[in-house]
Amino acid sequence: MFYGLSKFFKNLLPKQLFYRALLIVAAPIIILQITVSIVFFDSLWIKTNEGMTRALVAEIKTFTEAYDNEKYDKNELKNLFSIYLDLNVKYVQNNSFEKEYNERWFSPIDRTLRRELKSKIGNDQYWFNTTTYKELIILKIKYKKGYFEFLVPKDRVTSSSARMFALWITFPAMLLISIAIIFLKNQTRPIINLAKASEKFGRGENIDEFRPSGASEIRRAGYEFEKMRKRIMRHLNQRSEMLSGISHDLRTPLTRIKLQLTFIKDKIISKKLSDDVIEMEKMLNEYLQFSSSQSAEETETFDISELLKTTIEKYGKEEITIETINRVYFNGRKSLIRRCFNNLIDNAIKYSSNVNIKLTKTPNNITITIDDDGPGIPENERVNVFKPFYKIDKSRGNSKSSVGLGLSIASDTIQSHGGNIILESSPTSGLRVKIFLPF
């Protein structure tokens, strides 16, 4: 139960650090302002209005009682109340007295006035309207065969300080929240920059010297990231240099062996040895290709559909069909993507007779599907084939010229661009390779 509630509240909370920090800062201010407002309206404003309304009703009650006294002149009494108490009064001789009115229960003025009139004047003895005029209240009090009609200014029953209070309590709150937003923006910007640099480095892109900024904790994380980045780059450079050196050292003896093979008179032995040398050269090329799969190539925006078409055209095979849409632009490393396509198409051609390639686009992804009608890959081996140097000899044929790096290079390339690659069964009982690239 508590886990469900916790998950429910977590889903309600904002996901970004900036908005979470803003909520932490703004929520106490808003709660405090609401609390102060409630206390003010309950203990000060409403009570002040009640006192003002009570005084007004008492004045009206005094007027009606003085009007009954024959000692006072009626017109003089009206003038006195109009001049000194700001009550405009007239007597209307009419037996019909309007009793129905719209009870605006949400209005504190109406509620307070209704309560005081009911207690001092009595039920069905009054009628009022606070909406006809903007600054006046129409109030009718039943009297003998008619009624008194009072025009009362609204400031007699309500305090104008409420508006000023609302202004003064809202403006500082908005000012503080605005300052907090600016401050939080400056505090979260270094974290965003660090996240962008990490994402860019994770895709294999070359980034400039990262300069940590912000609070000491964020600076420390930035410095550690920069140290880690330099260690990884040093390791990758050492690996590339080592494999490059091995390549140079191995190519020299291989070249000498090929020259020596030309002097062997036994053509059968010469052919077998020559095949072994060619196989070693192919394996060596795959090693070098794997080592350069994380090269520091600059990213660029290119038409991936056009790249796929030109890659397929170079094979010149009618067995390869393609379904694509025009002008699908993608930001990435063009040479690595081309190499990925080559590896996947080479595998498909090697183990099947027909290959179908399809490119589709959604608002968020570019999807490339490669279907073949070959023997396929067993479901329990579809994860292992992405491991370097892993081969499935039983189901895919025993090819000595392959060292099991093609799918590994393809997977590294796609993942370095923020995408994903999965293997499925194709409709033709072969293998389906699905590539997802973020668009």
Trace the largest sheet across and list its strands: 6-8-9-11-10
Helix content: 55-70%
CATH class of the largest domain: Alpha Beta
Determine the CATH topology of the largest domain.
Answer: Beta-Lactamase
Strand count, sense and barrel status of the largest sheet are:
5 strands, mixed
Specify Rg, calculated over alpha carbons: 43 Å
Total domain units: 3
Q: Kindly report how far apart the N and C termini lie.
A: 40 Å
Describe this structure in words.
With 439 residues, the protein is α+β, with helices and mostly antiparallel strands. It folds into 3 domains: 147 residues, Sensor histidine kinase RisS, periplasmic domain (Beta-Lactamase), CATH 3.30.450; 94 residues, Helix Hairpins (Orthogonal Bundle), CATH 1.10.287.130; 138 residues, Heat Shock Protein 90 (2-Layer Sandwich), CATH 3.30.565. The protein is 56% helix and 15% strand. It contains 11 helices and 11 strands. The strands form 3 sheets. The chain has a 5-stranded mixed β-sheet. It has a 4-stranded antiparallel β-sheet with strand order 1-4-3-2. Strands 5-7 form a two-stranded antiparallel ribbon. A hairpin with a 6-residue loop joins β2 and β3. The longest helix has 52 residues. About 2% of the residues have low confidence.
